[in-house]
Amino acid sequence: MRKSITVSIDDRGKQLQFKITEMPATKLERWLTRALLLIAAANKGEADGGVDLQAAASHLASQGMRALANVRYEDAEPLLEEMLNCCTRIDAGVDQKCTSDSVDGYIEDVQTLFKLRMEAMKLNLSFFTESPSTSQSNDNTLKLKVPASKA
Fold first, then answer.
1. Is the pTM of this model over 0.90?
2. For position 146, what pLDDT does the model report?
3. CA quadruple 50, 53, 54, 57: dihedral positive or negative?
4. Which member of 46, 55, 79, 104 has the greatest number of CB atoms within 10 A?
């Protein structure tokens, strides 16, 4: 079952309630891959010998939207919209899905949008900062088996 949290955010004196639900695994994998590729492409001039994707992923988890600072807005906007789509507004027991088209009807302060997206990123990327369970190996290195070449 996917994790959900409820947050309350002050929006110019109004307390708005939101439920944030993490993305399904495959959708989050696609989101994360796109975000890491954008970050890697934006920072390619800073690293000799390539970009450390593990470091980029850790940076994304800890910095949230700030990690996308060097990415063109046009490239980052779909990622930001997907984070917003993880959120629903709770008002008088009715849930309303958050989209760029709907939030202007109840959110007045741009800071509320940033806070909401940051909370969604924290929830979706929490696996980077959670302690591994005792049943898992502490080695988070991706291991690929490469077939031996035929000589």
1. no
2. 40
3. positive
4. 79
